Amino acid sequence: MEKRRQIAFAGVSVAMVLLTAACGSSKDSSSGQSSNVQPAGGAQNVGSSAGAGSSTASSGAAGGYQAGGDTGAAAGSGDTGNSGPAKEVAVKKDAKLGEIVTDAKGWTLYRFDEDTPKPAKSNCNDACATKWPPVPANDAAAGTGVDKSKLGSVTRSDGTKQLTLEGWPVYRYAGDTKAGDTKGHGVGGTWNALAPDGKPAGKKAAGTDESLQLMVNNNAKLGKIIVDGKGMTVYRFNKDSAWPMKTGCLGACLDTWKPVKAVNTSKVAGLDASKVTSFTRPDGTKQAAFDCWLLYTFTGDTKPGDTNGQGKAGQWFAVTDKGKKAGLAAAQ
Q: What is the span of the domain harbouring residue 285?
């Protein structure tokens, strides 16, 4: 009986190896993920009253909440002081992450990849908001290292005002037990300590070797879609093949559809890095793939957020964070 189990296990292992080989990909090194870096906007400046100005309401669902690795006391108990108004928001130096934003008591402040900065919107509600308490906008002020004009507010689904930095809703982490803790950084691959520019702490500015290369954007029409490091929409082609991995875009096709260069999986955010692979094209160049589908950008897109290639010739589609075709063609 034991021998039969061993044979069955070996069979499954071989099948997995063959499945990976059929994809025809070579994976880059994988590590933790960061966040969706987007331009700020949509938040209202924080004044003497948290209710000043209009703002965008958040959705009622706890959208995209990643619980992986969450521990710690429930939020709002007041036992640890990790709750309430931020008071003076300031920049502190962390030995591992560099500059991070904290509240007046030194508690680390965080951002969530599933939120959006333009327009400002919180997608962390209900159980998510218990583990990641939203920071109230009232009484918040700019302290050392923080630009006052970068602070704002957004109206949550319960009608309360949440503090924003560069448009990103601001949170604390219930798992932090003392001021200076950064236990929430990297949780679920979607939570990160805040840098003073609104980006994830520990990441250099876009355009440097540490910038993100693939990430997820919340598109108003198509939902969560993959974009490159510059925020340009990424597409897949029906005439390509995933199993085995082959390209159907050659010759003149490449004048319009540009292969996304192979990426380092430590520089992706909001998607499963284990599904990011590479493919060697006929000319020897390496092309990025997600879930074995080759990735392209469209020359008809002129700015970040454009989706002009969606549905082109009934063959080209933006790629969802799950690797599927976005929009009406998502059912595959």
A: 214-330
